[in-house]
Design a protein that fits this description.
The chain is of the alpha/beta class. The protein contains twelve helices and 19 strands. About 0% of the residues have low confidence.
């Protein structure tokens, strides 16, 4: 019987907040003396960081649990845990029919994982930690505990806030991530400084609605102020942020984005629908005209900005004309790219109980038409930029292009290009020679 664990593997689905949760879990496990592995058959601990925004990532996570069950039959000392939004939503019920599952940890209890693992090693009994702040008054005293990062990397996610108060009709996030609460500005700057000392050159500030930062702090500090303070951190050379809600995209924020050289020329601004009636039923709190005006303001301030978005088709009651309004907005705005989904009901959300659910056939037909349109726009935009030179942070060898290096432009587009792996971690200028949906193939421009 094995007593001491020494390797771990983490599987992650969903948003950048989940990516940060995974990095936090990895750091906790490394502080326990464990080493990461990419091979499940070497792992003594397997942790699944899950997503509940759509049905598909939940299905993938449950399928992975089935694979791990087979592996645990061969390695009975293995500890298997589930974290993240699906863990928070389903709780201990996840263990029903899964006696091999050792722990379930919610979105606000990641810091408890080391103690939970130690208890499991001693007692081999199931453990759960699912407490979460629910009331607005909890905001100031219920921020998740952060852990010092471990390992080396060029980029890191850095949460500026947690939770969400928007209650969009289709979204489960407020129920599984809790009420909105912002981290103190000085605490975020301190963590950014620590990341710079570890060699991070790029950070992405995170929040479910990051540009409402500061609302729970009780002082006159907003996200524009935070961008300015983080820009002062030596060693951090690029700053990104996500996700932005159109109703909170202020002129002050746009001004800060345009003025601060470290802030990249990219924003992910989720529109969801181009029809005002659908937006109202979604509880999005803006109109298509307001969205268009905010896009115009962004492009006026930053002509080189890349704008990406989320689009959700087939919302309950969506008519063909309302769907056509979404297509019209996409044609007019011309997003650089988009995450596109068809509606599926999530338990506990308002939309799940609405009348007028559409058939899968109708939803998929609309989604396919939208994808075709957006892919055409993306292809045309990228093709128009062939010949331009972009600043790229070299991340290493591309996993999809033999021998080529890869990195992102400031506009968040992938560039693959020949070069020496010795340039990894450096900024180079790359001239785009071919365009693709994801970005470019190019060559280093030494001029």
């Amino acid at each position: 019987m094995r007593v001491t664990v020494n390797r771990f593997i983490i599987y992650t689905w969903g948003c950048q907040m989940n990516e940060d949760d995974s990095e936090q879990i990895s750091s906790l496990l490394m502080q326990m003396g464990l080493a990461p592995t990419e091979e499940a058959n070497e792992a003594d601990i397997a942790v699944l960081v899950t997503c509940s925004v759509r049905a598909k990532p939940e299905q993938k996570a449950k399928s992975k649990l089935g694979e791990l069950r087979i592996l645990k039959e061969q390695r009975p000392w293995m500890i298997i845990g589930v974290c993240g939004c699906m863990a928070q939503r389903e709780g201990s019920a996840l263990r029903k029919g899964r006696p091999y599952l050792d722990f379930v940890v919610g979105t606000a209890a990641i810091h408890q994982i080391p103690d939970i693992i130690r208890r499991i090693e001693e007692r081999r009994s199931f453990a759960a930690a699912l407490d979460m702040p629910e009331q607005p008054g909890d905001a100031a005293r219920s921020l998740p505990q952060r852990v010092d990062r471990q390992g080396t990397a060029l980029k890191s996610f850095l949460p500026a806030m947690y939770g969400c108060d928007n209650y969009c009709a289709y979204c489960v996030v407020p129920y599984v991530r809790g009420r909105e609460r912002s981290r103190p500005l000085d605490e975020i700057v301190e963590e950014a400084t620590q990341l710079a000392a570890l060699g991070r050159k790029e950070i992405t500030l995170l929040g479910q609605n990051v540009n409402s930062y500061g609302a729970t702090l009780g002082i006159s500090t907003d996200f524009a102020d935070l961008l300015r303070k983080v820009s002062e951190v030596a060693g951090i050379e690029r700053i990104r942020f996500t996700t932005s809600h159109p109703k909170d995209l202020s002129d002050r924020l746009i001004e800060a984005m345009a003025e601060l050289p470290k802030v990249c020329e990219h924003i992910h601004l989720a529109v969801q629908s181009g029809d005002d009636e659908v937006l109202a039923r979604m509880n999005r709190k803006y109109t298509s005209a307001v969205f268009r005006e905010r896009v115009a303001a962004l492009r006026s301030a930053m002509p080189d900005i890349a704008i990406t978005t989320d689009l959700l088709v087939g919302f309950p009651g969506e008519t063909q004309e309302q769907f056509e309004n979404t297509l019209r907005l996409v044609e007019d705005v011309r997003f650089d790219s988009a995450f596109m989904f068809s509606f599926n009901p999530i338990p506990r959300t308002a939309a799940a109980a609405m009348d007028g659910h559409l058939t899968e056939r109708v939803k998929m037909a609309r989604l396919n038409r939208l994808i075709e349109l957006q892919n055409e726009i993306t292809s045309l935009i990228n093709a128009s930029q062939v010949g331009r030179t972009y600043e790229v942070l070299v991340e290493g060898i591309s996993p999809k292009h033999d021998g080529r290096l890869t990195g992102l432009t400031r506009q968040n587009k992938t560039a693959n290009f020949p070069g020496s792996v010795a340039t990894a971690g450096q900024f180079v200028r790359v001239r785009a020679t071919q365009s693709h949906l994801y970005g470019f193939v190019g060559e280093i421009d030494n001029h």
